[in-house]
Design brief:
The structure is a homodimer. Chain A is an alpha+beta fold. Chain A folds into two domains: about 120 residues, Aminotransferase class 4, branched-chain amino acid transferase, N-terminal domain (D-amino Acid Aminotransferase, Chain A, domain 1); about 160 residues, D-amino Acid Aminotransferase, subunit A, domain 2 (D-amino Acid Aminotransferase, Chain A, domain 2, Alpha-Beta Barrel), CATH 3.20.10. The first copy, chain A, has ten helices and 17 strands. In chain A, the strands form two sheets. In chain A, strands 8, 9, 10, 11, 12, 13, 14, 15 and 16 form a nine-stranded mixed sheet that branches. In chain A, strands 2-1-7-6-4-5-17 form a seven-stranded antiparallel sheet. Chain A is globular and about 60 Å long. Strand 3 of chain A pairs antiparallel with strand 3 of chain B, so a sheet runs across the interface.
């Protein structure tokens, strides 16, 4: 806080100082207000509706060994989300690609998590009419991170099924990737209380929906099912279905009853944040024999192999 | 943008510069990172989960003629919301009161909109576990604003009923005042398309829920009903019920079918942002005789009279 208005309260209550200090040590770059800056300096106005109304959409693409993975698909989805929210970007697709590439170069990260954001911004008159707002584009790059840590990727994640229901598509269009995560966060706390590591939410019909930032897949008798509706149309989810086609595995989108999850041979999750990750316990019950299964392993291997495929990646020099 | 990383892109694309300039002219003060600053300088880190996950709660109290209106009730609700989200405030109730008072004094506003916020903050290690985050308290004061402008307060608001359903309580606890507004925003755009000025959302059962930042009331044969569940437990809504008791008007919380809205003698909305405001058209159909009704007027008058009542207000010297 470097304002002339600062007073003694700032000295007596350190507030979030430890997090601020740590932030300065994170390798990351942001693009904000038309320029690049270290992630520790990247801040948005309190009055931006992206914060005060969570009126924003975003997308996350990852960079692995200096190559974007499926950048085109992420840009397609981001631009579709922007249109669905009736937002307007100040940059075209080529400029977005350039900005994201510049962020990664400047961050000097080989493996990175690259987030692009469009917020409603704010109206110059503080009007409550969202049509008056000047929309804003922001991007940032931080080190790559995974939903599952190394141990969890090896032995499988332990999930709980939450009593909190996923926000339904009748309220918020899940095709628009959005920051409405309070259902996920409250469900996560519930899962921690039950000694689980992560959480699954059901939809309003009581079928399996998704977890915080990931889609779910159930393997039974060699075929794969993922929930059809009321979930994020994940790029990694889409990738899994393409990989299944390549491997000759039958994969489909359909309603997934909770019992199918408990009775599965294998369960795995998919996310840009970690790719394909095995699940080996749900609500304290082992899935299959309690170890990551052969189909999950095969898909995971092929998923990472594709990170060298020129058709699926964009190199950053 | 004052970073050493800024480059030519910032010159060629003005981005949100008009909004930034206008912000500098808004009379307002924020308390952030333990100190006070002009609202134009008040910014939060992009990485705060209050932004990236909308993992935050807030409350808004207003100041009218240099008196807080029902500050205690707003603090009660804010502290309850903070607890429900398992957040921790770095300040106690007396300190919060002092910070809010300081903000209003420094802003030199007689009529103000005073927002208090607690965000999840961020973890020093960028961990995805919300338990690792250092929670953050922020407050800001800007000029008082109303959902309805002067003309609308006189002739009544024109509302549309949206096809978007309000996020249900099974997903996000509506007692926790939150920034999950995408349902409201999408519904607002739908209402504008239909030449309405604001919007009503129904709950998942098809009954009346609420609008963006306001509760609804239906008057029929001298008695008043407001939706019972799945809505914000508004302080102004509560105030209306207390005012009804004082005036000997029967008021209750119950499910409100859509038809009751269309067939009402009077309809009004309640919000800290404007108090009690009449509604005279819904979906292009006049309510009652198309003018604000006598019960709405009586309640509105008493509501504003209470702004001088020492029991309901806290003076700022």
């Amino acid at each position: 806080m470097t304002s002339q208005f600062s007073d003694s309260l700032s000295q007596t209550t350190p507030d979030s100082a430890p997090a601020e200090e740590a932030l300065a040590n994170i390798k990351g770059i942001a693009f904000i207000e038309g320029g690049y800056c270290p992630i520790a300096e990247a801040k948005i106005s309190l009055l931006d509706w992206g914060f005060l109304r969570s009126d924003a959409t975003y997308d996350v693409v990852h960079v692995w060994q200096s190559r974007f993975f499926r950048l085109d698909k992420h840009l397609d989805r981001f631009l579709a989300s922007v249109t669905r929210l009736r937002l307007t970007l100040p940059y075209d697709r080529a400029q977005l690609t350039d900005i994201l590439t510049q962020c990664v170069r400047r961050a000097q990260l080989e493996d990175a998590y690259v987030e692009m954001i469009c917020t409603r911004g704010m109206s110059p008159t503080l009007s409550r009419d969202p049509r008056d707002a000047v929309n804003r584009f922001i991007a940032f790059v931080i080190p790559f991170s995974s939903i599952a840590n190394k141990e969890q990727r090896q032995r499988g994640l332990y999930l709980a099924i939450s009593r909190v229901r996923r926000i339904p598509p009748e309220s918020v269009d899940p095709r628009v990737k959005n920051y409405h995560w309070l259902d996920f966060i409250q469900a996560l706390f519930e899962a921690y209380d039950r000694n689980a590591e992560n959480v699954v939410l059901l939809d309003t019909d009581g079928n399996v929906a998704e977890g915080p930032g990931f889609n779910l897949f159930v393997v039974k008798n060699g075929t794969i099912t993922t929930p059809a509706r009321g979930v994020l149309e994940g790029i990694t989810r889409h990738t899994v279905i393409e990989l299944c086609a390549e491997l000759g595995i039958d994969a489909s989108k359909a309603p997934v009853p909770v019992d199918d999850l408990h009775n599965a041979d294998e369960v795995f999750i998919s996310s840009t944040a970690g790719g394909i990750m095995p699940v080996t316990r749900i609500d304290d019950v082992a899935i299959g024999n309690g170890n990551p299964g052969p189909i999950t392993r095969k898909l995971t291997d092929l998923y990472w192999q594709k990170h060298n495929d020129p058709d699926w990646t964009t190199p950053i020099d």
